[in-house]
User: What shape does this take?
Amino acid sequence: MFQKVLIANRGEIALRILRACKELGIQTVAVHSTADANAMHVRLADESVCIGPPSAKDSYLNIPSIMAAIEITGADAVHPGYGFLSENARFAKILTEHKVTFIGPSSHHIDIMGDKITAKKTAVELGIPVVPGSPDAVETEADAKRMAKEIGYPVLIKATAGGGGRGMKLANSEKDVLTAWSTARAEAAAAFGNGSVYMEKYLGKPRHIEVQILGDGQGNAVHLGVRDCSLQRRNQKVWEEAGGPTISPKERDEIGEICAVAMRKLKYAGAGTVEFLYENGKFYFIEMNTRLQVEHPVTERITGIDIVYEQIRVASGEKLSMTQDEVKFVGHAIEVRINAEDPQTFAPSPGTITFYHPAGGVGVRVDSAVYQGYKIPPYYDSLIGKLIVYGRTRDECLQRLRRAIDEFVIDGIKTTLPLFQRLIKEPDILSGNYDIHWLEKYLDDNK
Ligand code: ADP
Assistant: This one.
């Protein structure tokens, strides 16, 4: 097992990883920007190193600084969390070359899944169903027209290097396909330094369903069931569920097994998420994330498996601690993302938290790194906490969620809690009858 893990992240996920390390008896190193000197994970870590100024480019994304912190502290492994360097194959490779373990998959697997066209091709080879679309990048106007016609309108043009829902453009007919194609290319080039785009059939009313997988790099892999992350705003998840009743246990086990088999073939190591759109009883692969996801706690809650423990264990060379038969699903869990944002306009709301009272009680978990008096810096994403609630049934979970949201107090800044107070009264939410467009439409209709 590792002696000392360096946590190359910030916020709630840095604290989440730190907690797992402490429980496993591993020393921790926090790295932080000057803006995060007072952060909770920095205070609780055994050691901390300042790695640069506030801008993420100069700190959390600054590989030479992080390598220096590893050298100074003698850390033997790095947990990258999510975002930042978590899906940076070059970082994983540099660590390996320096004999430091990257707690995550091989740089080769990060590379394959990081390029969406290669990822889709790999999915097809592994027997995973994909969204119909262009087999390769769409590089000329003639190709764009021909491909769209072949796929059938409406089509979605997506960035090969895409992420966070950026660089996507919809074309409803031949009239707008060229504009959509060229804007998508320009946006992709600006956002990712790579203007390559591909085309997919646009699905009208799908749900976003994803499969959590775990592999040990030795050919063992399991799935931990599915999460429904259909409630999204601007392709960003807002509310996530694990457990019934959208996807039946039979469907869950079928798609889960397809993914687990694929991961066994790949000899995948660590945690990963295979993302699908689900429409009319069919699953369509859209991408795979080769890291821990923000919404992993809902899966932990219904399986009783600590995903971060497993990541650390398999990275240290141990086998997976469970077989597929040992994975049991009990009850229902929902996570809502508490962002420091105006609940109407979604404008960021950094500032000082003057009063903080998190929800508690039976079936409630709060993953957050904020505290009373904490000053939220304006430089990073606005997620400040996750409220995760469990119930034996979805109805019980919703009742408890309503109670927990009412109990949660964060003063001094604006948060998305009032949005959840509204959502939890909506009949469609209560019945679970929503697709990936539901929230956008609701927000439009209730301005
Ligand atoms: P990113 O990596 O930018 O998050 P994804 O491929 O994961 O991109 O897609 C993000 C979201 O965009 C999905 O959850 C879904 O809401 C929407 N989306 C992606 N592909 C399609 C499609 N073919 N049809 C309809 N919606 C889509």
